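Hello again,

I reread your note about wanting to compare the complex against the isolated chains. To keep things tidy I'm splitting this into two emails, and this first one only covers the full assembly. Below are the input lines as submitted, including protein chains and any nucleic acid or small-molecule components. They are followed by the predicted structure of everything together. The single-chain runs will come separately.
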Amino acid sequence: MLEITNLQVSGGGKDILRGINLTVKKGEVHAIMGPNGSGKSTLARAIAGHPEYEVTGGSVTYDGKDLLALAPEDRAREGVFMAFQYPVEIPGVNNAYFLKAAINAKRKYQGLAEHDAMEFMALVREKAKILHLDPDLLTRPVNEGFSGGEKKRNEIFQMAVLEPKLAVLDETDSGLDIDALKTVAEGVNAMRSPERAIVVVTHYQRLLNYIVPDFVHVLQDGRIVRSGGKELALQLEDKGYSWIEAEPQLM
Amino acid sequence: MSTSTDTIEELATREYKYGFVTEIEAEEIPKGLSEDVVRIISAKKNEPEWLLEWRLKAFRIWQKMKEPTWHNVTYAPIDYQDIIYYSAPKQKPSLKSLDEVDPEIRKTFDKLGIPIEEQKLFSGVAVDAVFDSVSVATTFKAKLAESGVIFCSFSEAVQNHPDLIKKYLGSVVPHTDNFFAALNSAVFSDGSFAYIPKGVRCPMELSTYFRINAKGSGQFERTLIVAEEGAYVSYLEGCTAPMRDEHQLHAAVVELVALDNATIKYSTIQNWYPGDKDGKGGIYNFVTKRGHCIGVNSKITWTQVETGSAITWKYPSCILQGDNSIGEFYSVATTNNMQQADTGTKMIHIGKNTRSTIVSKGISAGKGQNTYRGQVRIAKKATGARNYSQCDSLLIGDKCGAHTFPYLEIGNTTAKVEHEASTSKIGEDQIFYCRQRGLSAEDAVNIIVSGFCKDVFRELPMEFAVEAQKLLSVSLEGSVG
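Full-complex prediction:
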């Protein structure tokens, strides 16, 4: 599904990622962990094609295609979804209208008929129900005046409606209290499927209590310094990131 | 991967799809302005003596007036002797039916999406089509007459309803009002007249479509709408012009009169040719619009979507004289490339418990300069007057500008006046967020802009809200790379 080879990325004139290698297969959930400034979010944004980051080397293959050659909107239409760490407000634009435009842009790209208002509303209601979402959220402007928890839940809701093949969650747990965290995790778990890959970027282990990953990778200074199973996250929780610096694993 | 600055700042030429020219034989008078020209125009219209005198008075006053310079727009001096003040397509002097409209003119309006055949029109919309200096057709006149509504060209109204014209012409915007209004009063050639009798709710939307076609001519039209006691009318005007290398002047005057319990909704979709990306050509849109809420509980609402013109200079205003009368102004003004707009409103509170609302949305892209200028005046006797103003500016790119000049004069201590203003920029983060959801950068801008303008669009008649939204996206086309 996703094959990242020796990816090097700079942003703001600084080298941030210095050679990332990562393979994610269908149905897998990978967690990317690491201390602040290690490059976790940069990796997520580079996959999505954020214009503030420049790829200076390496390659990313997604579904057999050169992902880096695609415009951000085409990556999205090909099934790459990123849940934002800081979801952006779009004042005056109603959430449902925005989502309908998004899903229809994707369907058009895939050569499918666009959803009319009825089909779209049926789909949205069904997804809102699964995520225990207040339908009121749909008629409000995109993220405007949302609480931190609502914003994150809205990201997961958009993900559920857009049904991506690859979902990248960028620090989705930041700023959430434990109840909101659980709701968001439930939503993500409901999206787990043998056809879908999920990459969870997080600083803390606590989210991984609820979204249990198949693999955990630790990023430090722009490189993956250690990979393992879900127990790696627990070790990190226990010993802190400094433990890895003290005991570097041979990669 | 593109760098961040590419997305927003790259500017391309936008397309103006109404820029075609109609080849038609026109009756024109020579360039230049003099008392003789005023007399010729009046004679062509077969006007009564009093109207000629009124024009001449205006002309003499205009000659002594100076062109205003207080506005925040710059342009090369206008040579008023280099303008053709009357240009009319040659056609039969009086049309018995709409079928007699010249096929070329009919085709022009068809192309503009304004068919002047009744069966093809948007259902429930009557149109007065003004081509250069004259009205060429008015639809649904007979149907409107059934409910007593008069809707016709201004020239026709002068002939058929002289008492109404005499009573109301210049009653809201006097011929001495300002430089451009005086000029218009002297040389106006046509326009629309609507009269809604007592207690009548006008059964359809009224609209006038203005088209400038002739080269080197100006368009000077007058619109007068009178709503008698308890009457209601919704009126819409649209405007386009061909692409020409020289600037053309459009100096109109609109007067609205609302008596007791009457409501007038006046909406404008202004899409005059804006000039090319280097500022060559385009319409100078210098317009005086004012409504007079004479009666108690009367209401006048101005809604405008201003996307065209090289320069826009207009301040649709309300004089709130009747107690409890209401004035509203909802505006979206966009300036792209080299366009300049200095627009806003005046709300003059005279009666007790008068209320006004101002919502202004300015969008600047390219090197566009967008100015909101608004005055709220609460007279001494206007006990309990209220005003709420909201002025928001949206910037696309960093070569454009937004300016806000609110003027408040409050003469009564019971008045409540609120003013809110904001300036925001369409952010890279907003565009990226939309793109990550599968929208193109262009669609992202459109969706962000339409959200920004929502408060104004919802004031437009349904049939036109969609048009306005489309127009806005065309006018900002090319503002992102």
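For quick reference: Chain A has ten helices and twelve strands.

B.
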